[in-house]
Backbone:
């Protein structure tokens, strides 16, 4: 594949490394020095976008307009999902988006859903989520934490809401807490805890490097070839 990288920070460089190892070519790089409007997308098979929420929409619309499939790893833009879905349908385009492209994290999502179902009958336990990321990550909570929260709410009828907190707070009976920690050099850690008065159950995913996210993005880009529609990483892993 000929790949356009939109965003060339640490994540973009990790994607480039794995793409080259898998025999693909990076023929376009969009970054702060070269905006997407000034890039030549001739010959691009797929774009992979990891930037910031406030510019991701522009990048998605640009790629869909010129007929380039796009894999989107930027999070915190879900309010624009209806507009993007409409654009994909109108342009007969192709887009994969995910809160996290790591294959391990997506397995973690499935296990979280199953655990939430199991714990539904054990109301003596209170669930919480703690996510820790590098200091360059601006959105709180992380997109991964939000996906985990959605999984808990969808699979446990006792919860209908979550609250972002810095420390422990008094909570309503139908909500749970998410804590967001920012520390140097942490690719991403997500801890789900079920606490009761007599014991604790902890369930954790720890990313050691960015390579898992980068590999998943490449796998999604490969899968997206010759497809039309809007997809998530769950679609990629189920086919």
Residues:
């Amino acid at each position: 594949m000929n790949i356009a990288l939109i965003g060339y920070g640490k994540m973009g460089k990790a994607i480039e490394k794995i793409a080259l190892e898998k025999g693909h070519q990076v023929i376009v790089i969009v970054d702060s020095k070269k905006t997407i409007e000034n890039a030549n997308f001739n010959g691009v098979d797929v774009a992979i976008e990891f930037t910031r929420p406030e510019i991701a929409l522009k990048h998605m619309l640009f790629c869909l307009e010129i007929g380039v499939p796009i894999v989107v790893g930027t999070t915190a833009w879900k309010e624009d999902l209806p507009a993007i879905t409409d654009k994909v349908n109108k342009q007969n385009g192709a887009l994969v988006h995910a809160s996290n492209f790591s294959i391990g994290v997506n397995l973690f999502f499935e296990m979280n859903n199953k655990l939430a179902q199991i714990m539904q009958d054990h109301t003596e336990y209170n669930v919480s989520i703690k996510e820790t990321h590098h200091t360059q990550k601006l959105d709180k909570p992380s997109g991964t934490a939000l996906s985990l929260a959605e999984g808990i709410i969808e699979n446990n009828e006792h919860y209908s809401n979550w609250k972002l907190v810095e420390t422990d707070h008094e909570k309503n009976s139908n909500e749970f807490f998410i804590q967001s920690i920012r520390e140097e050099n942490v690719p991403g850690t997500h801890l789900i805890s079920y606490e009761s008065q007599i014991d604790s159950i902890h369930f954790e995913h720890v990313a050691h490097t960015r390579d898992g996210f980068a590999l998943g993005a490449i796998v999604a880009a490969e899968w997206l070839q010759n497809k039309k529609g809007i997809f998530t990483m769950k679609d990629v892993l189920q086919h």
Notes: Residues 103-119 form the longest helix (17 residues). The CA atoms of residues 110 and 168 lie 27 Å apart. The chain has two domains: 2-97+211-238, 103-207.
